[in-house]
C-alpha cells in the first residue's frame, strides 16, 4: 500500500513539476517573443503612459518706437486647461473651481462632461499669477497650467490705432500687429517630457524643435511726439465737443510717419474697450473733401502753366461767381487779389477763376501727380485711395469746385503726404511706418522752384492777417492752410456740420515735417479750421520741432493774433 502511495506521489510531483516547467517555458518564450517581435510596439505604448510632447511657445517680436521705446511686448502668463476624463474622475469641488475660474458651476461641469472624450480643453486663457498659484494648490488630477504669452501695450490708447492688437492666440488682428504679423510671429518649438501620475512634467527627455522667436519691429514713430499729438488732439476734441479727430505728422524727406493719432481711441489692454467701431484708424481709412487745404495744388498748377505768378492779380469782385445755375461765393467781397492773396484770404472765387482758366487735363494731371485717387502705399491695413474723377467727366462746376477742394476726397494721411511733397521741394515721398536708416525713395512731381514759391505763399496764410494765425509757433516760420469744409448730406451740403482742417509745414525756411489736423463736427461758435484745427498744429509743432532738434528759423518771437482772425469761408456754393 505504501508503495502505491509513493508511486502516486511521484506521479503528482512529476505532473506539478512538468506543469510549472511548461509554464516557465511559456513565460520565457513569451518574454523572448515580446522582446524580439513586439519591442517597438511595447516601447511606444509604454512611452505613451508617461511621455508627452509639449509645445514650447515662441516669443512674439516686440514693437518699438524709433528710439527703442516699447510699444508692444509679450509677457509670459499661464493658461488653464484640463483632461476632461481625468478631471471628472477626480470629482472636484465644482463650486470652488468655478469661483476661481469665474464660471458658473453647472455650465463648467456641463462643458467638461460634454468633452470627456477629448484629451485637452481650455478652461481659461491668460490668468493672473495669483490665480495660477491658487489653482496649482488645488492639486486636482486632470487640471493643468500651460505657459503662454500675452501681449501688453505700455502706451495704451495713445498709440492704439497704429499699433493695433493681437487675439488670445497672439495673432495680429488690427493695425501694424496685423500688417506685420508674419514678421512679428514666432514659430513654436516642442519637447518630450516625462509626466507623473498627476500629469505634471517632472523631467525633460528631449527637445524636438527649439522655438524661433519673432523679429522685433522698429517703427518710424517717435513716442515723445506721439504723446504730444495725442494730448493735443484729445484736448481739442473734448474742448470743442467734436465727433472725432485725426492727426498725422510726417518727415517730409523720408516719408516716415512720426506720429498718428485719432479720437475717439481705445485701450488695447482692456478687452472691454475693444469696440469694433473704435478700431479703425480714421487717419488712414476715412476720407473727406479737403476743402481749402487743396487750394495750394490749384496754385501749383497755375504756376506750372506759366500764365500766373504769385503777384498776378485776380479780380474776385463782387465776391460771387456765377457758373451756370450755380454760384461760388466768398466769405465777403475781397476785390482784386494777387495769386498769393487768393490763398491767404482763402478766396473760393479767385481759386475757381484760376482753375477755369486752365485746361482741365493739365489741372487733373497736376492733382494726380500728387497721389490723389491712389492708395498712399503705407502698407497699413485698409488704407483708402480716396476719390478723384477723371477730367473727362468734369463740367465747369466740377472744375471750379475742385479748385477749392470739393468734388474729390482724401484721407488725412494722403493730405499730409501732399504737404510733405510741397515741403520736400516737390518730391512726393514714399510713406513708411518703419524707421528708415537710409535715403528714402521719392518721386519728383513739381519743380523745386515752384514748390518753394508755394511754401512762401502758405507762410503768408499763417501771418497775423491770414486765416491760420493760430498755427504760429514762437521762434519758427510756419507755412500752412486752413480749411472749413461743409459736410455732405443727402441732397447737398449741411449748414451746421463742418470738418475743421489745418495742413502745414515747418519750419518754412527748411521744411522738416508736415502735419494735418482734422476735427470732425466741432460744436459751439468756433468751427473754422483756423479756430479749431490750427491751434492743435501749433501745440504739436512747439514740442515736436524741439524734440527733433530743429533749430529756430525766426529771430523774433511771433505773437499769435488776439482771437480776431479772418476765418476760412465754408464752401460757398448756392443753386438758383
Layout of secondary structure:
Blueprint: H1 2-37, H2 39-50, E1 51-56, E2 63-64, E3 70-82, H3 84-89, H4 94-101, H5 105-114, E4 121-127, H6 129-138, E5 143-152, H7 160-163, E6 165-166, E7 172-174, H8 175-179, H9 181-184, E8 189-195, E9 201-209, E10 217-218, H10 223-239, E11 244-251, E12 257-263, H11 276-279, H12 282-285, E13 287-288, H13 295-305, E14 313-315, E15 320-323, E16 326-329, E17 336-338, H14 339-344, H15 348-356, H16 360-369, H17 396-402, E18 410-411, H18 412-423, E19 427-429, E20 442-444, H19 448-461, E21 479-489, E22 492-506, E23 513-520, H20 529-532, H21 534-547, E24 573-575
Parallel strand pairs: 2-10
Antiparallel strand pairs: 1-8, 2-3, 3-4, 3-5, 6-7, 8-9, 11-12, 11-23, 13-18, 14-17, 15-16, 16-24, 19-20, 21-22, 22-23
Provide a quick synopsis of the model.
The chain is α+β, with helices and mostly antiparallel strands and 576 residues long. The protein folds into two domains: 54-218, Penicillin-binding protein 2a (Domain 2), CATH 3.90.1310.10; 223-553 and 565-575, Beta-lactamase.
Amino acid at each position: 500500500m505504501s508503495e502505491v502511495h509513493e508511486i502516486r506521489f511521484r506521479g503528482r510531483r512529476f505532473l506539478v513539476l512538468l506543469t510549472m516547467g511548461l509554464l516557465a517555458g511559456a513565460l520565457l518564450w513569451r518574454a523572448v517573443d515580446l522582446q524580439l517581435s513586439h519591442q517597438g510596439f511595447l516601447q511606444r505604448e509604454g512611452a505613451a503612459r508617461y511621455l508627452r510632447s509639449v509645445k514650447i511657445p515662441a516669443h512674439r517680436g516686440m514693437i518699438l518706437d524709433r528710439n527703442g521705446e516699447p510699444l508692444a511686448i509679450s509677457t509670459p502668463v499661464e493658461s488653464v486647461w484640463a483632461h476632461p476624463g481625468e478631471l471628472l474622475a477626480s470629482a472636484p469641488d465644482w463650486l470652488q473651481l468655478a469661483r476661481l475660474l469665474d464660471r458658473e458651476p453647472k455650465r463648467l461641469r456641463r462643458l467638461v462632461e460634454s468633452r470627456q472624450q477629448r484629451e485637452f480643453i481650455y478652461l481659461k486663457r491668460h490668468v493672473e499669477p495669483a490665480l495660477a498659484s491658487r489653482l496649482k494648490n488645488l492639486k486636482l488630477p486632470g487640471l493643468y497650467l500651460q505657459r503662454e504669452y500675452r501681449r501688453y501695450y505700455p502706451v495704451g490708447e495713445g498709440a492704439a490705432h497704429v499699433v493695433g492688437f493681437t487675439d488670445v492666440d497672439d495673432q495680429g488682428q488690427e493695425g501694424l500687429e496685423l500688417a506685420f504679423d508674419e514678421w512679428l510671429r514666432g514659430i513654436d518649438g516642442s519637447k518630450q517630457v516625462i509626466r507623473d501620475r498627476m500629469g505634471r512634467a517632472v523631467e525633460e527627455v528631449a527637445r524636438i524643435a527649439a522655438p524661433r522667436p519673432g523679429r522685433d519691429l522698429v517703427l518710424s514713430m517717435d513716442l515723445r511726439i506721439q504723446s504730444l499729438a495725442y494730448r493735443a488732439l484729445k484736448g481739442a476734441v473734448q474742448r470743442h465737443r467734436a465727433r472725432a479727430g485725426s492727426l498725422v505728422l510726417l518727415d517730409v524727406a523720408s516719408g516716415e510717419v512720426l506720429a498718428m493719432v485719432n479720437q475717439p481711441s481705445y485701450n488695447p489692454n482692456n478687452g472691454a474697450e475693444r469696440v469694433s467701431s473704435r478700431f479703425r484708424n480714421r487717419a488712414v481709412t476715412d476720407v473727406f473733401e479737403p476743402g481749402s487745404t487743396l487750394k495750394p495744388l490749384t496754385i501749383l498748377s497755375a504756376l506750372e502753366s506759366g500764365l500766373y505768378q504769385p503777384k498776378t492779380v485776380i479780380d474776385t469782385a463782387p465776391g460771387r461767381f456765377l457758373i451756370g445755375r450755380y454760384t461760388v461765393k466768398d466769405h465777403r467781397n475781397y476785390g482784386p487779389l494777387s495769386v498769393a492773396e487768393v490763398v491767404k484770404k482763402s478766396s473760393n472765387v479767385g481759386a475757381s477763376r484760376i482753375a477755369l482758366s486752365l485746361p482741365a487735363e493739365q489741372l487733373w494731371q497736376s492733382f494726380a501727380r500728387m497721389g490723389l485717387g491712389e492708395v498712399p502705399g503705407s502698407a497699413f491695413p485698409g488704407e483708402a485711395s480716396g476719390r478723384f474723377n477723371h477730367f473727362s467727366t468734369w463740367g465747369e462746376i466740377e472744375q471750379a469746385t475742385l479748385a477749392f477742394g470739393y468734388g474729390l476726397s482724401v484721407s488725412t494721411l494722403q493730405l499730409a503726404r501732399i504737404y510733405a511733397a510741397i515741403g520736400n521741394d516737390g518730391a512726393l515721398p514714399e510713406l513708411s511706418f518703419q524707421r528708415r536708416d537710409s535715403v528714402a525713395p521719392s518721386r519728383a512731381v513739381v519743380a523745386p522752384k515752384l514748390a518753394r514759391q508755394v511754401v512762401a505763399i502758405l507762410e503768408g496764410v499763417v501771418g497775423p492777417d491770414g486765416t491760420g494765425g493760430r498755427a504760429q509757433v514762437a521762434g519758427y516760420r510756419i507755412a500752412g492752410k486752413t480749411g472749413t469744409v461743409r459736410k455732405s448730406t443727402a441732397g447737398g451740403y449741411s449748414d451746421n456740420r463742418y470738418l475743421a482742417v489745418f495742413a502745414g509745414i515747418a519750419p518754412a525756411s527748411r521744411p522738416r515735417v508736415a502735419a494735418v489736423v482734422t476735427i470732425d463736427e466741432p460744436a459751439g461758435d468756433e468751427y473754422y479750421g483756423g479756430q479749431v484745427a490750427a491751434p492743435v498744429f501749433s501745440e504739436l509743432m512747439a514740442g515736436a520741432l524741439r524734440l527733433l532738434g530743429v533749430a529756430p528759423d525766426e529771430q523774433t518771437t511771433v505773437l499769435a493774433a488776439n482771437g480776431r482772425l479772418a476765418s476760412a469761408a465754408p464752401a460757398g456754393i448756392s443753386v438758383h
